[in-house]
Amino acid sequence: MSEDAFASLYRRWYRVLVAKTYLVSGGRRDVAEEAAQEAFIQCWRRMNDPTGPPVEHWGPWLAVVAVREVIARQAKKEAIYDLGHHDRAVNLPDPADEVQLKEVYRRVCEKMAGLRERPRRAMALRCIAGLSTAEVAQEMRLTQSTVRVYLAEARRALEPLRVELRQLGIVTEGEGEHRG
Q1: Within 10 Å of residue 175's Cβ, how many Cβ atoms?
Q2: What is the per-residue pLDDT across 120-173, written as a single tens digit (0 to 9) for each?
Q3: Which CA distances in Å does 80 have to 49, 77, 109, 168?
Q4: Are 40 and 69 contacting, i.e. CB atoms less than 8 angstroms apart?
Q5: How many Cα atoms are found within 13 Å in the side-chain-facing hemisphere of 34?
């Protein structure tokens, strides 16, 4: 793959990945950016591996890789959700001028940080990375029904912020909603 194609992919998806990983990490910009960078490193390797299977949709592929990277870093760092550690004015993936944007990010990070570990992980994999419930269950080594319970818990906590998450482009229409 050409460097121009990779650069175009990077420009298109970098901010989206940092925004998603920022939420999964509970507002830790350093972790979010490192996870996004690692996803692009793996992307570059995958693009230049003629023996690997082709990737049709790079955006979702990158999101899964980046979210998994945050989860892996969470396993290594116990204090990843230390809300007192964050500089709310600086730690935003998109330095928007609007106070509302900053406030929504702060509230979402607080809600994500307040979730228990398994519901947070299930929500990150299902609704932010875009894995299916079956894939989340397999990755977390749980049954699908247990994953659905964890997702329901996380959705109840995050439901009041759904409209604002859509406005930020973090969650798209229908993403993260309960599907009967």
Answers
A1: 14
A2: 999 889 878 888 999 999 999 999 999 999 999 988 888 887 777 666 665 555
A3: 33, 6, 12, 23
A4: no
A5: 12
Give the 3-state secondary structure percentages of the chain, helix then strand then coil, rounded to 5. Answer: 70, 0, 30
122's tokens = 């299930």
Matching residue, tokens 């490193």: 41
Distance CA 143, CA 136 (A): 9
Distance CA 111, CA 123 (A): 12
Q: What type of residue is 163?
A: V
* pTM, full prediction: 0.65
Helix axes 29-47, 3-24, angle to 10 degrees: 150
- Neighbour count for residue 97 (Cβ, 10 Å): 6
Residue pointed to by tokens 């439901």: 159
Which tokens go with 85? Answer: 């550690």
CA distances from 17 to 36, 143, 152 (A): 6, 28, 24
